[in-house]
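Troubleshooting: if your tokenizer reports a length mismatch, compare your output against this known-good record of 233 residues.
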Amino acid sequence: MKLHTVAMIPARGGSKRIPKKNIIDFNGEPMICRTIRAAQNSNIFDDIIVNTDDDEIAEISKINGISIPFKRRSCEDDYSNISDVTIDFIEQYELEKKKIIDEVIVLLPNCPIRDENDIIEAYNFFNQNNKPIQISAVKFGWMNPWWAHTINQNNVAKNIFNVGQKRSQDLDELYFPTGAIWIANAKTLVHRKSFYNGEFTFFPMDWKKGIDIDTYEDLELAKLIDIKDECES
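Known-good structure output:
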């Protein structure tokens, strides 16, 4: 039996660090349009839903071919995490649309450089690994956390991990999650109540594709990378 696979693009209107972040201009278009287009062009999904509480975001989504069957009913505050938002979405979707979600793929709109090829690759990776939950991740680069220090009021430094004089090539590679592409078996996610409870896998991405925009500095970096990639393609 064919699985019902749904893309959920979470886009609340009340972002604080960058007001209206999800629809801020990103090299000539509202940022959320990049994620909508990537989801559409992947041809993976039975349904693509922008999960929002905001009328302007909803209208932009509709103009770009996304139906808004319902508004987000909760989790529009600064404290709800992506697990809470996704689980609430699954429950609301199944109630409103009378359909069971088998697989949910979460695509944050503040990761605009991720494209349809990344989504397809992540989805294939998910199916090959046969694990119920997968989170996209990026390897730490030149800002290697192994060399992280604290400094006291006298600027005396203390290494957090006590790695001593080890060379970077002798240390384990470290990864951190990015909101670009999170995939879950919906029933498992609801049962576990979090993407992080129980066993999950990482899907490593190119660091540029995984850029997660939370500040204006992130935004400027992402714009520059996007322009450079466009010029080279």
